[in-house]
Amino acid sequence: MLLLYAIVATAGAGVTFANEDGTGIACPPLSVNIGGEYCATFSTTSGSWYDMEAYCNQLGTSLAKLESVDFHYYLAKYIYDNGLQHQEWWVGGTDKDHEGNWVYPDLTPVKMGTPFWGYSYGGLFNNQDPSGGTLKNCMALCKEYWHDAGDLKCTSHHKGICGYYQYPYENIKWDL
Fold first, then answer.
1. Which residue range(s) make up the domain with 157?
2. Is residue 69 packed enough to be buried (19+ CB in 10 Å), middle (13-18) or exposed (0-12)?
3. Which residues are the signal sequence here (predicted)?
4. Is the pLDDT reported for residue 119 higher than 50?
């Protein structure tokens, strides 16, 4: 159902490129170019982390991985440049299977610390996420952290960001 809604909402969307002349990195239909080297699809509906991962799987990918500072920067920049900063956005990290062992769905490790994870300030202590223990096991770009990562309850409802990584145009053919 989520996939059908996304297709209807973006009917006519085609392949997007990093450069206006049609060169550079090609992005699949329903996605946008992020920073000239990455592609992402922003869901139009909200759901749990599990719902958003299933949505991304229907598109042939998974929730986005914050594997580089550049991708994280350009993703946050896109969020702010396009007025999307007033909400949290699910991305792919989780420690739901083993507390403290943050991994992406493909089991690659999540990068920890600065500059990826946000800080909560106040009281006697300043804590850097992830700090939610067994109650918060899924990763999102959080508005309170200026869209650095935070750990949230996996069942809370937010929109998701599906990630695609460095597709050279000449190697991709989509049947539209």
1. 2-10+24-171
2. exposed
3. 1-18
4. yes
For residue 45, how far is the Cα from the chain centroid?
14
pLDDT class for 18, splitting at 50, 70, 90? low
Query: Distance between CA 13 and CA 11 in Å, rounded?
Result: 6
Give which of 165, 160, 175 is closest to 2, Cα–Cα: 160
15 domain residue, yes or no:
no
Instruction: State how many domains the chain has.
Output: 1
* CATH number for 39: 3.10.100.10
| Within-domain flag for 18 | no
Give this prediction's pTM.
0.82
Reduced to 3 states, what is the DSSP secondary structure of residue 22?
A: coil
Q: Which amino acid is at 148?
A: D
- Banded pLDDT at 95 (limits 50, 70, 90): very high
55-82: per-residue pLDDT in tens?
999 999 999 999 999 999 999 999 999 9
Residue 138: φ, ψ to 5°: -130, 145
Alpha-helix residue ranges (DSSP H) falling in 15-170: 49-58, 69-81
